[in-house]
Amino acid sequence: MFELLIVKPIFNLLVLLHAIIPGGNFGLSIIVFTFVIRFLMWPLVKKQLHQTKAMRNLQPEIKKIKKASKGNRQQESMLLMELYKERGINPFSSIGTLVVQLVILIGLFSGLRRVIDDPMAIVTFAYGWVQNLPLLQEIAQNPALFDNTLFGVVDLSRAALGSDGLYMPAMILVIGSAVTQFYQSSQLMPNDKDARGLRQILREASEGKQADASETNAAVGRSMRYFIPVMIFVFTVGFASALSLYWFMSGLVGYWQQSRILSQDETEMEEIGASQKGDVIEGEVIEKSTEQKAKELKAKKAKNKKKSSKSGNKRRKK
């Protein structure tokens, strides 16, 4: 089912591009394929970045909530959820984009593995109407016509580290993939000079100091921008460089997309924020202060407790 619904459509999109792009170069087909995928994901990426930017703008208000809660985790969580609801923010919005990217990557990985194991799979695994395209018919008659290089410079079927040793052109793509992923992740990280590192938080936790959950999550997120590039390097260094080329180009295009959205959508973000109840401008709350909300929440709890107590007294009198 996964092969039918995911792998084959993704693979055939790549093969279709390879068949219609002049020159019949497989590396160029992967580059164009990357652009097509990234631009198809533009609305999803834009929505995710809006949410990410809104979360960054809320950091001053979140700090006020922590201060007003005075260590009361339950009250802090309730105030944070209320704040997110008022601003129309979903803290888990990035998960959807990550899932889509992961599905595409797995589908492309499966398709590329077929072509590397058997170059004729570019014909045999394609849809019937794709097989009828002129270039694929030529490859079917003469498999040597399949150019699986990047402009004749990089053999995309070879790994950076394989049985034949180090292949430097592929290694450059692998390193480029890791570097672009690092900068792409760093681009979305809030610049909080007062933020503590994960090592410091864990050290203080081992000494008996209670760790703040949101601060720990933020520290983990900052650490992931180093961890993910390392994982990409380890994963791609032993696989055919065709996957590294896709990952490298995806990182470059993704970085450009993020830069464009974050730099040119300031007016749109302000309009979206202004339409939300209790907008935040430069970290200042217009509608209500956090301290006031905390007091209201305490008063509401006390009122409910008093009401519950009266009801209990009435039942006992009866």
Structure description:
This protein has 318 residues and is mainly α. It has one domain (2-287). Helices cover 72% and strands 4% of the residues. It has 15 helices and 6 strands. It has helices at residues 2-20, 26-40, 42-57, 59-69, 73-87, 94-117, 121-124, 128-131, 134-141, 168-186, 198-206, 213-236, 241-264, 266-275, 290-317; strands at residues 149-150, 154-155, 161-162, 165-166, 280-281, 284-285. The strands form 3 sheets. It has a two-stranded antiparallel ribbon with strand order 1-2. The protein has a two-stranded antiparallel sheet with strand order 3-4. Strand 3 (161-162) and strand 4 (165-166) form a beta hairpin. The longest helix is centred in the last third of the chain and has 28 residues, at 290-317. It is elongated. The N and C termini lie far apart (65 Å). Mean pLDDT is 77; it is low at 276-288.
Helix content: over 70%
What radius of gyration results from the CA coordinates? 26 Å
What low-confidence regions span 5 or more consecutive residues with pLDDT below 50?
276-288
**What distance lies between the first and last C-alpha atoms, to the nearest angstrom?**
65 Å
Overall shape: elongated
Read across the widest sheet, the strand sequence of neighbours is 1-2
Overall pLDDT score: 77
Largest sheet: 2 strands, antiparallel
Q: Enumerate how many helices there are, as a single number.
A: 15
How many strand elements? 6
Q: Helix-strand pattern, N to C?
A: HHHHHHHHHEEEEHHHHHEEH
